[in-house]
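SAMPLE LOG
Freezer: B-3
Tube label: C17
Construct: single chain, 270 aa
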Amino acid sequence: MTRQNKSDIVFHVRRYNPEGNEKPYWQNYLVHTETGMTVLDGLMEIKESQDPTLNFRSSCGMGVCGSCGMLINGRPALACSTQILEITDRDLTIAPLPNFDIIKDLVPELTSLFIKHSSVYPYILNNEKDEMDRPTGEFYQDQQELIEYLQFSYCIKCGICMAACPTLSTDPEYLGPQALTQAYRYNRDSRDEGFNVRKEVVSDTNGVFKCHYAGECSNVCPKGVDPARAIQLLKRELVLDYLRMKKTKVKCKVCEKRNGSPKPEIPETT
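STRUCTURE (predicted):
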């Protein structure tokens, strides 16, 4: 395929249709690229003007939904957040995320991610069942309590950390960085009391201690969640619990009506 000028980028796209292909194959497309054009823009141009049979996922186009995760020049990334001319001036290789089955072309099957995510109870578990079912007020948090888990709450479930994980590539049963990070996120939430429930899942054979700390999950995370750090902190949490040295979580302040704690001052709007 002949390039016309420096702005013409050759897209090498891995194609695969399980209903018609015995194995994946590569197909090339020439895309005229302008400054600021993203990989997703290029794929849209291919689908609209060159090959309507090309399949990929996308939704928000602004790095929030996580739908367009794919392998771009050998690195898992969001297509909507990756500008073409910032990573290449000649060829661009695009493939589906590794460590997942392929539905079609660049569309990975993410069911395993969501199953593992749901297995760690990714929601508030609190023994105040009546208060959870019929709340009488807010569960207050101060700034430091928020900081304890805030970074790890930015996960958009794009699967990019899972695609980069070398442990997961050799052991599909491993929970992986996404689920383990979310387990730690909820363990650190001052409103949550579910550590003992999650402990049974994350300390199992396929849990946190299979992590070799390669750190690739954090290197590729598009939201700066830092799963590698969360996993190491989760390991420490489990070891301290085993040694009976884990600090008891301070009972969260439910609301003024429940325990008489003063409500935080909320400034009036003007």
